[in-house]
Design a protein that fits this description.
The protein is an alpha/beta fold. It has a single domain (25-206), classed as Rossmann fold, CATH 3.40.50.150. Helices cover 29% and strands 28% of the residues. It is built from 6 helices and 9 strands; from the N terminus they run ββαβαβαββααβαββ. The strands form 2 sheets. The protein has a 7-stranded mixed β-sheet, with helices on both faces. A two-stranded antiparallel ribbon has the order 1-2. The mean pLDDT is 95. Bound molecules: S-adenosylmethionine. S-adenosylmethionine is lined by residues 20-21, 23, 27, 50-52, 56, 71-74, 77, 100-101, 117-119, 135-136, 146.
Length: 214
């Protein structure tokens, strides 16, 4: 029989079970960084890619008036996101979408801040984490397969002057993303914060397009 669990996550009560990734307390730092970036971000909503039970996006918008669009492929995850949004009194500002992250957004949708938490474990190492759902952790051969898809969505849907906070697993993964983005533009890795050996948070900005008068 499944056990429904509940965890305090930055003051929010988050329900989950073993069909989704157990919330990791250190990742509240990702939500807080996104909330901090929202203060200077352009107007607009927040997009959360790979939401799981939704705790990162919910915490990011809990203390402001931004709206959240939360996306996950796993139908159980989106149900938990909805339940957790309701428990937090945020359901009127939260829209949940189930499906592949690159197929659920309209072509013209733009977001002020994007939170992305893709699976980033290399496929050969997935067996080391038998308690975690494979869909939640399998990042393909080098751990970056879903992260690149997130970056493609960020490229198409992050507003000018907006920022994304992407979670990766290792400094080597960060170096690959930085080298790829910073040589091509318009997205740039502008900062990263390592959280011991648990993961790395990466801030990605899209510079404002300067429109000269006339
Ligand atoms: C690392 S977990 C993060 C979950 C949550 N943010 C957390 O911190 O617990 C990655 C999530 O990505 C989802 N996912 C994997 N591939 C996806 C895809 N192609 N499109 C949308 N979501 C996907 C999984 O279902 C899982 O919930």
């Amino acid at each position: 029989m499944r056990t429904l669990e509940q965890m305090d996550f930055g003051g929010l009560q988050i329900a989950f079970d073993d069909r989704v990734l157990r919330p990791r307390p250190w990742t509240a730092a990702q939500a807080r960084w996104a909330a901090e970036l929202l203060r200077a971000a352009p107007p607009g909503d927040v997009l959360e890619l790979c939401a799981g039970a939704g705790q990162l996006g919910l915490l990011a918008v809990a203390d402001n008036d931004r709206r959240l669009v939360a996306v996950d492929l796993n139908p159980v995850a989106v149900d938990f996101t909805r339940t957790n949004a309701e428990a937090a009194g945020l359901l009127d500002r939260v829209q949940v979408r189930q499906g592949p992250l690159d197929e659920v957004l309209g072509p013209d949708e733009q977001f002020a801040v994007v939170i992305a938490d893709p699976p980033w474990v290399c496929r050969r190492d997935v067996g080391r984490y038998p308690q975690d759902p494979v869909l939640a952790i399998d990042g393909g051969d080098d751990g970056l397969a879903v992260a690149w898809r997130c970056l493609d969505v960020i490229d198409r849907h992050l507003a000018d002057g907006g920022s994304a906070v992407l979670q990766l697993g290792t400094p080597e993964q960060v170096a690959r993303v930085r080298a790829s983005l910073n040589s091509a533009g318009p997205l740039r890795v502008v900062a990263s914060r390592r959280h011991a050996d648990r993961g790395v948070l990466v801030r990605i900005d899209r510079g404002r397009v300067s429109r000269s008068p006339g």
